[in-house]
Amino acid sequence: MKVDQILALPSMPAACPSYPLGPYRFVNREYMIITYETDHELLRQAVPEPLEPNPEGHVLYEWIRMPDSSGFGDYTESGVVIPCLFEDQPINFTAQMYLDDEPPISAGREIWGFPKKFAYPKIAVNSDTLTGTLHYAGELVAMGTMAYKHQVSPGGPEALAKSMTKTQCNLKIIPNFDGRPKICQLVAYNLTEINIHGSWLSPARLQLIPHVNAPVADLPIRKVLGGKHFIGDLTLPHGRVLFDYLKDQKP
């Protein structure tokens, strides 16, 4: 291989790259998000400085079904998102994420620093109930249920699309050849080209089961506040460095 051919590769392995160059378009992406209150001290431990966790102690537990994703295919993911503040501005921090498809795992970790691990999440409509489950290493670690489409979200698709432009970030850690950190950053991104087909609120319940390799239950449920279900299209662009732990930390 020539040097210019190597530098033009979008990802590893060179013989068959795991994912193409972005940005990445998602069509009919379906979300099930259950919001709950947790322990403030445990929330602080889960959020990396210089982010500040939301004072209300809220956590978003998500299932996302992605049937049509450019470069990635058809997959589902599930995980934990924590509303935070960065320099007094609202931002969402992705703390844990589990999914069932190799290309978005590789791209998510290598480009944006998404904390992705392989597992088996599922979202389905069972009779009158929207149901999300997450299995890791053969064991159930999360289950959420929502009543199906009880109430249209206030403000409709326009309000939800605007809220989805909120800055989101991940803690990206990639070691060097000697095992020491080569990259240690907060990477931010903002979704674009958002088109919401429908959005609903409903009563919800959530169960989280302790597991050493999928510790979603480490932020225990104090009170479930409700569920949101919506479907839409969006584009995930490349990110930007919000904070560099190897350069920006004070002595």
Report on this structure.
This protein has four helices and 16 strands. With 251 residues, it is mainly beta. It has a single domain, classed as Acetoacetate decarboxylase-like, CATH 2.40.400.10. Helix 3 links the parallel strand 5 and strand 6. The N and C termini lie far apart (44 Å). The model has no long low-confidence stretch (mean pLDDT 96).
Summarize the structure.
The protein has 251 residues and is mainly beta. It has helices spanning 3-7, 40-46, 102-112, 156-163; strands spanning 24-37, 52-53, 58-69, 73-86, 89-99, 116-118, 120-126, 129-136, 139-147, 151-152, 168-175, 181-189, 192-202, 204-208, 223-236, 240-244.
* Strand runs, count: 16
Summarize model confidence as the mean pLDDT: 96
In terms of structural class, how would the helical and strand content be classed?
mainly beta
Please describe the biggest sheet, giving its number of strands, its sense, and whether it closes into a barrel: 12 strands, mixed
- How far from one another are the termini? 44 Å
Beta-sheet strand percentage?
over 45%
Task: Give the CATH architecture.
Answer: Beta Barrel
CATH domain topology = Acetoacetate decarboxylase-like
**Alpha carbon gyration radius:** 18 Å
**Which CATH class applies here?**
Mainly Beta
Helical residue percent? 10-25%
- Domain unit count: 1
Could you say which overall geometry the principal axes of the C-alpha atoms support? globular
